[in-house]
Automatic annotation (TrEMBL), chain A:
GO process terms (BP): metal ion transport
Superkingdom of source: Bacteria
Protein name: Copper-translocating P-type ATPase
InterPro entries: ATPase_P-typ_cyto_dom_N, ATPase_P-typ_P_site, ATPase_P-typ_TM_dom_sf, ATPase_P-typ_transduc_dom_A_sf, ATPase_P-type_domA, HAD-like_sf, HAD_sf, Heavy-metal-associated_CS
UniProtKB keywords: ATP-binding, Cell membrane, Membrane, Metal-binding, Nucleotide-binding, Plasmid, Translocase, Transmembrane, Transmembrane helix
Family assignment from sequence similarity: Belongs to the cation transport ATPase (P-type) (TC 3.A.3) family. Type IB subfamily.
Keyword Translocase set for record: yes
Spans through the membrane: 122-142, 154-176, 188-206, 212-230, 365-385, 397-421, 692-709
Automatic annotation (TrEMBL), chain B:
Protein name: Cbb3-type cytochrome oxidase assembly protein CcoS
Keywords (A to Z) from UniProt: Membrane, Plasmid, Transmembrane, Transmembrane helix
Tagged with keyword Repeat: no
Organism (species): Mesorhizobium ciceri
Keyword Protein transport part of the UniProt annotation: no
Length: 759, 51
């Protein structure tokens, strides 16, 4: 990793804390068989950036035994490794030695993107047809007559057939789907317009008429498909980036059989009563009870508690918590499908109702627009019938009205703005799941934050380092370097560089602390009651974390106070949200004391501590009932139901897997400024969408009377349609150039270097 | 008029050739990794092992 600066996907320093490499059993479980003893494993490697990275990885992995081939995909930042044999080649370790962090990828998500290739193929066919028909049409407009014109019309009709069948199929299917369910969407007027235009043009061609609209119907499809493809590419890109993050859920566990044999079983096959071995650094796969060993557990992702909990035999543990310090043997008390995680998924599905009712702006507009347009065309037909009695002329003019009002600009107005907005967010490390998420975010008036892991990092920070004897701090720092306990990590940051304290032995006592000996004295760093066995201080420290001390031969020589470190820019982000007219609340599963401190530091007046997952959902539902549109920002498993209950939701990249999938937005950088930025961009996008729709309607107001009076020729239709589309696209691109007006522009630009382009 | 008889088929054929080429490239996976393809030009082929 000498070559490139870290990019958007890389600002994930906090993910790695406490995680261990996937075991070879886990890799085997996640690989997919290609038959003939050949297996393929997909790894996500977020830090690949250039040719040198590709070469280093492909060369290093190619040199491993049993590896058949390696292929790096730079666009999706994945590595596909094909290997043979029973033994899993150590490719994750090999990547680690090169400095690349790799995450396992689920094999089932590797399906090729069928929709995208269908869309691109449709764009290609429609583009080919539109280009050729336009060429023939230009000759007709410039004066081709008689047999030549008929020939050109026939050729156009022929070329249009594959375009209608292939490219139009996408719209016809969608329109039919909507109509069958009694709904209306943008595709209904498109499908009606295109097919009627084709039918009438065919009739004209057969009867040697001079007006054919083949060009209009095919170029309409072409324009709309471009918008639709860009929209799809944007969502796909976000989806891939989110999926490439490290998986925090467990795939399997080492099961200890009665006869002493050890098997690595997938989570789904673990049954109650089995004994599981959980090494330090692993997550607990199912609910269980500790039967041997003591350790500290990091529950922050599960319950929102920021202080690690120490467990001893006999205590219950929940699925999803991270085992920090010592190996544990637990007896499973529930299968995976009855565990805490599954319970969260059920709560989440139950809460999903609210946002499913949201209807996209485009659909709402077209529900009003389509009937008006169709009625206008029909009335035009009746009017001309009554006036002239010439049914052929009446039909021609009515269809011209349909073509001129076909919502080309309207169909582009929304997706183009959203693609531009999503790209701006993407460049700032924010992934958007779909366009409706931006529409919903623009409407919120209340933001609800989770505390641990969202407003704070869930990592303690030493607060009284300045008032401490530097010598003692250095000793403690050197001892703490031997442990992965969050407190130790916080202290280890203060170890004196260079001057290492010489210890004879260092041992970690899970659940208590670290013991070290040097030159006849015993140092202990850990719980007050354990480390200071001779001290008679009694009483815990004032702070929530006050129990950690350093002792020499049983006498306390230093006391450590911790607080949960705030996420970068949390205070500024909250202030910006308040300035934007959004009221901010905090809901947490943590204790009242810890919540109060965080709320005070951030200036949040409204907070509720000690909430269960269902409690969070209830709070959000109450807010929704009072007519608020709620944004939920959270990361834990316990936030997941709330994420899907809220009107719109945002999760950091460090969130639990199902939380990340439930959230509408995922931000990859550490800074919480992502939240006000997403709100700002979404609101601007909503503004532009409304403007674009207004432009499209004004255009119609001008064009429709001309069409009703029967003055529209194919040439006028083609010019009017292209002009309105260009106008709408140009207006959407204004979002790209407009820079945020608020201090959001202070987003740390130095952390990224790659400007990611949308296709 | 007679020039049209062969010019139009020729034009359509060339267009169809381009379309066919694009669809073939799409199908054979050449659009799967656009960024990677741009960077791979910098890698010397002799150094590659295992492919």
């Amino acid at each position: 990793m000498s070559c490139c600066a870290p990019g958007a996907e890389m600002a994930l320093d906090l993910v790695n804390t406490g995680s261990v490499l996937p075991s070879s059993q886990e890799i085997r479980l996640a690989s997919r068989s290609l038959g003939d003893d050949l297996r393929q494993t997909d790894l996500s490697v977020p830090t690949v950036h250039c040719a040198a990275c590709i070469e280093a990885i492909e060369t290093a992995l190619g040199m491993l035994d049993q590896v058949e081939s390696t292929r790096v995909n730079l666009s999706t930042k994945r590595v596909a490794v094909r290997w043979r044999g029973n033994q899993v080649p150590p490719f994750v370790a090999a990547l680690g030695r090169l400095g690349y962090e790799a995450h396992l990828f689920d094999p089932e998500v590797d399906n090729k993107d069928k929709t995208l290739s269908e869309l691109i193929r449709a764009v290609a066919v429609a583009g080919f047809a539109a280009g050729n028909i336009m060429l023939l049409s230009v000759s007709v407009w410039s004066g081709a007559e008689g047999a030549t014109r008929d020939l050109f019309h026939w050729l156009s009709a022929l070329i249009a057939i594959p375009a209608l069948a292939f490219a139009g199929g996408i719209f016809f299917r969608s329109a039919w789907n909507a109509l069958r369910h009694g709904r209306m969407n943008m595709d209904v007027p498109i499908a009606v317009g295109v097919s009627l235009a084709y039918a009438m043009s065919l009739y004209e061609t057969i009867n040697h008429g001079d007006h054919a609209y083949f060009d209009a119907s095919v170029s309409l499809l072409f324009f709309l498909l471009i918008g639709r493809t860009l929209d799809h590419v944007m969502r796909e890109r976000a989806r891939t980036a989110v999926k490439g993050l490290s998986q925090l859920a467990v795939r399997g566990a080492m099961v200890l059989r009665g006869d002493g044999a050890r098997d690595y079983l997938p989570v789904g096959e673990i049954e109650p009563g089995m004994l599981l071995l959980i090494a330090a650094g692993e997550r607990i796969p199912v609910d269980g009870k500790v039967s041997r060993g003591t350790s500290d557990l990091d529950c922050s992702l599960v319950s929102g508690e920021s202080t690690p909990r120490s467990v001893a035999p006999g205590e219950a543990v929940q699925a999803g918590v991270l085992n920090l310090t010592g190996p544990l043997t637990i007896g499973a008390t529930a299968a995976a499908k009855d565990s805490f995680l599954a319970e969260m998924v059920r709560l989440m599905e139950a809460a999903e109702g609210g946002r499913a009712h949201y209807r996209r702006i485009a659909d709402r507009v077209s529900a009003l627009y389509a009937p008006v347009v169709h009625l206008t065309a029909f009335v035009t037909f009746l009017g001309w019938m009554a006036a002239t009695g010439d049914w052929h002329r009446a039909t021609t003019i009515a269809i011209a009205v349909l073509i001129i009002t076909c919502p080309c600009a309207l169909g582009l107005a929304v997706p183009i703005v959203q693609v531009v907005a999503a790209r701006r967010l993407f460049e700032n490390g924010i992934m958007v799941k779909d366009g409706s998420a931006m529409e919903r975010l623009a409407t919120i008036d209340t933001a609800v934050f989770d505390k641990t892991g969202t407003l704070t990092l869930g990592q303690p920070r030493l607060v009284n380092a300045g008032s401490m004897d530097p010598g003692m701090l250095a000793v403690a720092g050197d001892m703490a370097a031997h442990s992965r306990h969050p407190f130790s990590r916080a202290i280890a940051g203060f170890a004196a560089p260079g001057a290492r304290h010489k210890f004879d032995t260092v041992t970690e006592h899970p659940g208590f602390g670290i013991e070290a000996t040097d030159a006849g004295s015993t140092w202990r760093l850990g719980r007050r009651g354990w480390a200071g066995w001779k001290a008679r201080t009694g009483g815990e420290g004032k702070h929530g974390y006050g129990g950690t001390v350093l002792t020499k031969d049983g006498l306390i020589v230093a006391t450590f106070n911790f607080e949960d470190a705030l996420r970068a820019d949390a205070g500024l982000a909250i202030k910006l949200l308040s300035d934007a007219g959004v009221s901010v609340q905090m809901l947490s599963g943590d204790t009242a004391g810890a919540c109060g401190e965080a709320a005070e530091m951030l200036g949040i007046e409204d907070f509720v501590p000690c909430l269960l997952p269902s409690g969070k959902v209830e709070r959000i539902e109450t807010l929704a009932k009072d007519g608020h549109k709620v944004l939920m920002v959270g990361d834990g498993l316990n936030d997941t139901p709330a994420l899907s209950a809220a009107h719109v939701s945002i999760a950091p990249a460090t969130a639990a897997d199902i939380g990340r999938y439930a959230a509408d937005f995922v931000f990859l950088r550490e800074s919480l400024l992502a939240v006000p930025l997403a709100l700002d961009v979404s609101r601007k996008a909503g503004h532009l969408i409304r403007q674009n729709i207004a432009i499209a309607i004004v255009y119609n107001a001008v064009a429709v009377p001309i069409a009703i009076l029967g003055h529209v020729t194919p040439l006028i239709a083609a010019i009017a349609m292209s002009a309105s589309s260009l106008l709408v696209i140009g207006n959407a691109l204004r979002l790209q150039s407009s820079r945020p007006s608020s201090p959001v522009k202070n987003v740390r630009r130095d952390r990224r270097s790659d400007i990611t382009k949308l296709a | 008029m007679t020039t049209l008889a062969y010019l139009i088929p020729v034009a359509l054929f060339l267009g169809a050739l381009g379309l066919g080429g694009f669809l073939w490239a799409l199908k054979s996976g050449q659009y799967e990794d656009l960024d990677g393809a741009a960077e791979r030009i910098l890698i010397d082929r002799e150094d590659k092992i295992g492919r």
